[in-house]
Amino acid sequence: MEVNDLGFVAIVLFVGFPTAFLFIPYAKTNA
């Protein structure tokens, strides 16, 4: 359970952080 939770958190951070970093300027440009 702990391994799955840590893996899930790692995936969320690894994928979500760059996505948000790229998406925020894109959203500001279109807003």
TrEMBL record:
GO terms for cellular component: photosystem II
Transmembrane segments: 6-27
InterPro entries according to UniProt: PSII_PsbM, PSII_PsbM_sf
Organism from which the protein derives: Nothotsuga longibracteata
Swiss-Prot/TrEMBL GO biological process terms: photosynthesis, light reaction
Name of the protein this chain belongs to: Photosystem II M protein
Keyword tags: Chloroplast, Membrane, Photosynthesis, Photosystem II, Plastid, Reaction center, Transmembrane, Transmembrane helix
